[in-house]
Amino acid sequence: xxxxxxxxQVQIGTPSVEDYRRLRDVAGLSSKSQEAAERGLPNTxxxxxxxxxxxxxxxxxxxxxxxxxxxxVDIAVDPEHQGKGLGKVIVSRLVDxxxxxxxxxxxxxxxxxxxxxxxxxxxxxxxxxxxxxGMAIEIRRAGEYVD
Length: 147
What we know:
By secondary structure, the protein is α+β, with helices and mostly antiparallel strands. It is built from four helices and seven strands. The protein has a five-stranded mixed beta sheet with strand order 1-2-3-4-5. The relative contact order is 0.15.
């Protein structure tokens, strides 16, 4: 899927650390440290970024073990470019990759915040409750747990 506005260009590949951190921040996702981004981004299985006039304005990644389990993460769109279908373009590219490259029986998960669940449902994602419930822990250097 390509965006109809030719000024938006989809690039396949992991975003730069700078673009990654900036897009997470402006899109309202939790901030990630320089160290975390530098360590985590090279482990990307697949990623897509939307460029607008040579600036990254949207992104999404797949992480996982490359066989059994994949997770879609970091779906972020700069608020100045929201409402233009960029999230749909990104998710479409990620799901197309999975349908082409992931082996039969691979489990693909994601965490849907707020109304994003409606976007993901268009691609076949379904809630796993009540059989399962998503759980998380955020690690802090001081050893405390963050709810």
